[in-house]
Amino acid sequence: MSAEAEVPRTGTGGSGSAAPRPGSPAAMEPALPPPFSRAVPGAGLFGWVRGRCLGRSAAVDPARDTFRAMTGLYGSIQPADSMYLSTRTHGAVFNLEYSPDGSVLTVACEQTEVLLFDPISSKHIKTLSEAHEDCVNNIRFLDNRLFATCSDDTTIALWDLRKLNTKVCTLHGHTSWVKNIEYDTNTRLLVTSGFDGNVIIWDTNRCTEDGCPHKKFFHTRFLMRMRLTPDCSKMLISTSSGYLLILHDLDLNKSLEVGSYPILRARRTTSSSSDVTSSGSIGPRAVGSPCHQNDSGPLSEKHMSRSSQREGGSPRNSLEVLTPEVPGERDRGNCITSLQLHPKGWATLLRCSSNTDDQEEGAPVRPVSPRRSLRLTHCIEEANVGRGYIKELCFSPDGRMISSPHGFGIRLLGFDAHCSELVDCLPKEASPLKEIRSLYSHNDVVLTTKFSPTHCQIASGCLSGRVSLYQPKF
User: Fold this and answer.
1) Which residues are CB-neighbours of 108 under 8 A, at least 6 positions away?
2) How confident is the model at residue 80 (pLDDT cuts 50, 70, 90)?
3) Greatest Cα-to-Cα distance within the chain, rounded to the nearest angstrom
4) DSSP symbol at 369
5) Which of 305-309, 314-318, 365-369 has the highest mean predicted lDDT (pLDDT)?
6) What does R_g of the chain's alpha carbons equal in angstroms?
7) Cα–Cα distance list, 122 to 10, 59, 94, 107, 147 (Å)
């Protein structure tokens, strides 16, 4: 899919009317775009309907002035403030999370602490000095006041911004390090995953001081990261052995037993391009995993026949196992260390590190329509500085940019040089992500970065404990 030239704007008069003279009131008024003009194929009413179906908003419409304004703001972003406390107190910064209204920035730290800042004034609000008994790995807001934290101490804690002196409750259920948290806003179910291989569901509707009712939903070996799509219709799981697992038509109220997953298919995707050896990512090395390809043949036939009995469609929680390859990494296994989803669910963003030669890691982007062939659309390679630590990258709220830790700073990456939507610049073959800007303000390796959901602001955190904010500077 290639973008076409923008439809030219017409004058203020009707058909055949003369253009306003320079300096006249009509000429000085801002020209408004036609209601259905598009910068993509299919201009007109059908183009507008297609854009609405894809979820494109006016703020990221290439035919709108706001599109160019936001691109200009991102292009002029600069380091603004640094928030730094002694590393003796909280250690490295592992994760950053804004509240949904952008009023609070929370920081997950290596040494049991959680820090809270006002991102607008850069002022420190509160330090939860003993939030956990081990390093804090991830933070997730449930709404503008409630948030959850998880830790290597195997627990999850719920907090209320209105009463930070004590936890709302502590959740016990994992047997190893808890690495990330998701939240289903439709059912108000909290979803957590850890290095014990378990995905656990917590019913926050019945939360008490003693905890929440919970159940084990899914289990797989070598689990690294778990994400829910924005509409919570799919769950994606990445593994250290190179698998990407996708559960379709997600039903969190139904637990899945090992070996009983309705498997759609397990495949290794390849590309015919001479420059790109694979259209997926990450070579497989999961021996003994319940999702191993060798076990998928009979299971696939068994469950596909069963699925045909369900009104001709797939059963709920159907499992798809993908083992795509990273360009140039055909003979080396890869670990998917970071997994992010496009805000509109259009693509997955993976950060991959070689299992055999941990020298390089990339950020491949792939469409998240796994029922069709998984295809690598964009990728980029970079040196693995700070080996042994996981670097968390992220999409911007509009999905047009990626912020990625890069050495002692961050890189802003786009699908093209104009920060276009992915659907407007989808290449026929895998192409490199375009570097929009590099920002360096740390004195140590950056581990995590995050866009503000409401302001043109980016936060990053590094090994030495410094948190930096970036915003436009003119």
Assistant:
1) 93, 94, 95, 96, 97, 114, 136, 137, 138, 139, 149
2) confident
3) 76
4) -
5) 314-318
6) 23
7) 45, 27, 19, 13, 20
